[in-house]
């Protein structure tokens, strides 16, 4: 069941909107704590239930090269590499620190981190431990709000770039000024229904159900966007799943998403364009909460 709520401000002003506000949207309005693109919902007996795509991928879709755990604690930014113990003969060649702001897709700074990784290790290794002040100087942030760091895993073949390796250094409430295009240029670039013969079995492996109704959606923006959340108007009354949700557009200006529709019901592309909702941290700021 999809919960629909409205927020009321301290001055008893009710937030006006032309659509329902789902629990996912409300979470981003209320939350200034979690750095990861995930949230919780409350079930019928009041218990907290983890229900977000990235929360599932965080523990299920662990790459063979391990993952990065990065967090902010008492003005110290710490990042650790956590190996995949099932593939402990594989290890990164190097790590790269990349600094961004919400003002540009172009990094303000990047640096290779010289970390020695021993073979067959099964314990986390610290790869970054710096104060916010040190990062401000190193990354040339010039104390602007909307500061972001990302750590990339590199091996001989490719780089592993993940939203899980990214951290927004500022609480959303601290970001007082946004780029003029933030939220306004976040949009659907294209939607197409994939042909059943186009290797759908490989595409749908992460969906919780099997279906032949899979759409390829390209989301684009002219400005960096954080915590992008996709949803479909509940009035459409379909069961659906996005291959990626709660993601960022920081090092790229567009992303391909697959939408899975359960059952025999299909949605026309024109209807989907109208009833597909896109929210981000910037669009919530535009609501003047």
From TrEMBL:
Q: Where are the transmembrane segments?
A: none
Keywords (alphabetical) are:
Glycosidase, Hydrolase
GO BP terms in the entry:
glycoprotein catabolic process
**Any idea which GO molecular function terms this record carries?**
beta-mannosidase activity
What lineage is this protein's organism placed in?
Eukaryota, Metazoa, Spiralia, Lophotrochozoa, Platyhelminthes
Q: Which family, according to UniProt?
A: Belongs to the glycosyl hydrolase 2 family.
What Gene3D superfamilies is this protein classified in?
Answer: Glycosidases
Report the residue ranges that make up the Beta-mannosidase Ig-fold domain in this protein.
213-281
Question: Which PANTHER family does the record match to this protein?
Answer: BETA-MANNOSIDASE
Q: Per its UniProt record, what InterPro entries does this chain match?
A: Beta-mannosidase_GH2 (IPR050887), Beta-mannosidase_Ig (IPR041625), GH (IPR017853)
Q: What's the protein name?
A: Beta-mannosidase Ig-fold domain-containing protein
């Amino acid at each position: 069941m999809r919960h629909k709520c409205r927020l009321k401000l301290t001055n008893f002003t009710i937030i006006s909107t032309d659509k329902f506000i789902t629990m996912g949207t409300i979470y981003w309005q209320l939350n200034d704590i979690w750095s990861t693109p995930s949230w919780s919902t409350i079930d019928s007996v009041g218990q907290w239930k983890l229900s977000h795509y990235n929360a599932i991928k965080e523990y299920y879709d662990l790459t063979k090269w391990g993952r990065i755990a990065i967090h902010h604690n008492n003005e110290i930014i710490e990042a650790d590499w956590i190996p995949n113990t099932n593939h402990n003969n594989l290890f990164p060649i190097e790590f790269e620190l990349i600094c961004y702001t919400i003002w540009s897709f172009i990094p303000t700074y990047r640096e290779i981190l010289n970390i020695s990784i021993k073979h067959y290790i099964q314990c986390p290794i610290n790869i970054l431990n710096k104060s916010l002040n040190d990062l401000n100087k190193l990354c040339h942030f010039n104390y602007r709000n909307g500061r972001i760091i990302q750590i990339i895993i590199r091996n001989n073949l490719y780089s592993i770039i993940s939203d899980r390796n990214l951290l927004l250094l500022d609480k959303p409430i601290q970001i007082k000024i946004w780029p003029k295009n933030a939220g306004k240029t976040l949009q659907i670039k294209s939607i197409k229904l994939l042909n059943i013969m186009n290797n759908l079995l490989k595409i749908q492996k992460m969906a919780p159900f099997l279906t032949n109704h899979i759409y390829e959606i390209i989301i684009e923006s002219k400005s960096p966007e954080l915590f992008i959340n996709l949803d479909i108007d509940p009035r459409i009354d379909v069961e659906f799943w996005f291959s990626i949700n709660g993601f960022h557009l920081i090092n790229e200006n567009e992303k391909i998403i697959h939408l899975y529709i359960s059952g025999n019901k299909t949605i026309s592309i024109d209807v989907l364009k109208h009833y597909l909702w896109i929210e981000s941290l910037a669009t919530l700021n535009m609501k003047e909460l």
